[in-house]
Amino acid sequence: MAAELKKYKMKLRDHGLKVTEKRMTMIELFLNEDRYLSAKEVQEQLHKTYPSLSYDTIYRNLYTLKEIEVLENTNFEGEMQFKISCSDHHHHHFICEECGNTKVIHYCPVDTWQNELDDVEITNHKVELYGLCAGCK
Question: Which of 7, 11, 105, 125 is deepest in the core (most CB within 10 A)?
Fold first, then answer.
């Protein structure tokens, strides 16, 4: 985990951001979770260590970390949720609607779609599948 945290410290510095204990604690929280978290869940977890940390500060940092691709986000159950970015390779996610755990889907259908839509150029996409994981169904 120390090597991963060092990588994220460098990423913050490379983007001209301060490396703060609170930001690093937030990143560490996401490294320890294999699911999307809402801003409220992040606040509940960080409140134990930083009781005066405001919801606005958490939300701003979530979006800052998303902008520099430390985190990725999705809209799940009508709420923006975040998880550590999987930017090392292209893939998609299955997300359990009950517990929020995610599984990686390596197959990407965009080439098939591009062939079906020969008069357009697909420049970006995001595919998420929702359902119940083995533990929740």
Answer: 11
